[in-house]
Amino acid sequence: MSIPARELTRSKRRIVLVIAIVLSSVATAALCSCATAAPQEGPELPVLPSYTDQLSAADKEKIDFRNSIRALDPCGYVDAMALSRIGKPVMSGAAGFVFGPCEIWFDGPRITIDLGRVVPDAVPRVVAGTTVWIHHADESGNSCSAQLRLNDSYGVDFGVTLRRNIGDPPTPVEACNMAADLAAAPTAQQAGRPLRAESKYPRMNSRLASIDPCAVLGKVGPGHRPVLAPDFVDYPFWCDFYLDEGDESSFRTVQYSYRSYDHMKPLRGQRELTIGGFQALEDPKPIDTAPGTCAIYIATDPPDTASGAQTETVEVTARSGCAAAHTLAEELTRLYHEFAR
Length: 341
Known about the structure:
Layout: H1 10-21, H2 57-69, H3 80-84, E1 91-93, E2 102-105, E3 110-117, E4 123-127, E5 130-135, E6 143-149, E7 154-161, H4 172-183, H5 186-190, H6 217-220, E8 227-228, E9 238-242, E10 251-260, E11 271-275, E12 278-283, E13 294-299, E14 310-318, H7 322-339
Antiparallel strand pairs: 1-2, 2-3, 3-7, 4-5, 5-6, 6-7, 8-9, 9-10, 10-14, 11-12, 12-13, 13-14
């Protein structure tokens, strides 16, 4: 399934991201005070890039956290035996519009696996001696998430969405039990630090995923007072920031997504161009954005003429016009050529 990025406004894209990472509204689950799975060592944190010297201590901590999980493969926490209890997958790996999570589709449920901060208001549940944390159990019974905490900072989330027909009775127990079973499975506990670079799942081994989107601040930040935007501060494949704190016109974004090649063709004032050797699309007036905003989409995969074919895409926006957006795009492609592995 793909979501045409051209059709999505900025607010709609955020809604898509929220749905993919956490599946709506908290419910309760059974409480039990049994032993938690043995905590795993957190990954060694990389040396902070030099651009973080421009940031506040709080923003440095956010970058530090993103760097610690960016290279990890969420598909690597999936237990084959637990999957077999659900059925036979019809699709797995990276899919849809949102970049980063692992998705596994069945002829029925959809499983989304991702890494994130410990969910503070989750409800503990013990499954076969392992404590997992239930959260975002939808009142309709259609979705539920369970988190296995890997250390005090973050965990791996297993979100379950049940496809159901209109009028079917809610079954929250089914969704939450399925999520909890996946989170408590042996592979999830023993995986350690599975890497995207070693993933066996389609499209998880991504060169683009190795690039810190905030690293563009090394180019555009000096001489300014950059501050990270408060939205999705822990998501490692987005970087929203103000080049100068308090100046709305200095807002910039760098976001990774999947985009259909069909939507890399110019329409209504857009133009096709090449940046850093990659096919790109410039939109000087994106729908429902602040005045002066310019967006550029960069396709980092080789061109594919097949109908519906998708490409990993870098989307950059700048509220101060296309010249500023081009600066971001050119720097990101430079980083890709120099550092992507």
